[in-house]
Amino acid sequence: MTSLRRHPLATFLVLAFGLPWLVWVPRALGVPVGVLDPLSTWLVAVAAVLAALLSGGRAALRDLGRRLLRWRAGWVWYAVVLVGPALFTLLVTGVVVLLGGRWADTAPPLLVQGSWALLLAFLLVATLTDGLGEEVAWRGFALPRLLERLRPVPASLLLGLVWGLWHLPLLWTEGRVLYQQPLWLLLLDITAKSVLFTWVFVHTDGSVLLAALFHAATNVFVVSPPVPADGDLTLPLVALGLKWVLVALVLGRGGLRGAVGRTERVGGPSPAGGAGGHRST
């Protein structure tokens, strides 16, 4: 138990990869996994809960719960996480059309043709599945602990690499959005997203709820488009390029600078109480 307490991130990573991959690897090999397939994303959240209990006991679990329930943030940040992905996808679509693509082949059908009710329904489902399922783990457990050791940019890049590799079995799973996507494209894409998620995280006092909404919106609005069957990388590359432009703008404007005090230490008091501990960029 002492070793688990001293190495919470290592404990988390073993569980975070091990539990979902017990489902994903057989699924990639064509073995039926039944109801575990749609529930598998939540296994990484289970990994975070177990790692919190094993490494920090009830205090770490309470910290995780506080981050999950933290909803107070300015309306601007709700707009960023919910509307921003839709605007970004429309921008990507516009650039692809200017490069010779067809609007009908490029724009996400749900965004262009879906009703508000349908969009809200998809957003709710995405929040309750991939959104909370993943963000309890990546932003709720892993990122705060990385920020205690690293500056925000290196922490984001490292977490992005791990987050990307975590999806590895899905690259060989027929029927998944990531099926047959090049690994380099996946890693560059998710690493860029990791920086943007950290930007939201440090400006919303470490809210897992806002991160989950951001995650859900990026999935619903197809911010990371799959590679088409014909192998044309125009759309994914345009999306990737513009995503890194956003990262450059965030970093250039100091979006991760001065993160000290914006989120509390793991198990520590709230930012209002003067706790800090994170390093600036």
TrEMBL record:
Write out the GO MF terms.
Answer: endopeptidase activity; metallopeptidase activity
Which residues are listed as membrane-spanning? 40-61, 73-99, 111-132, 153-172, 184-202, 209-227, 233-252
Q: Which Pfam family name is an example for this entry?
A: Rce1-like
Show the InterPro entries listed in the entry.
MmRce1-like (IPR042150), Rce1/LyrA-like_dom (IPR003675)
Ranges in a coiled coil: none
Where do the segments described as Disordered lie?
A: 262-281
Please list the GO biological process terms of this entry: CAAX-box protein maturation; proteolysis
CAAX prenyl protease 2/Lysostaphin resistance protein A-like domain boundaries = 118-221
Q: Which UniProt keywords apply?
A: Hydrolase, Membrane, Metalloprotease, Protease, Transmembrane, Transmembrane helix
Give start-end positions of Gly residues composition bias: 270-281
PANTHER family assigned to the protein according to its UniProt record, in alphabetical order: PROTEASE, PROTEASE-RELATED
Q: What is this protein called?
A: CPBP family intramembrane metalloprotease
Protein species of origin: Desertihabitans brevis
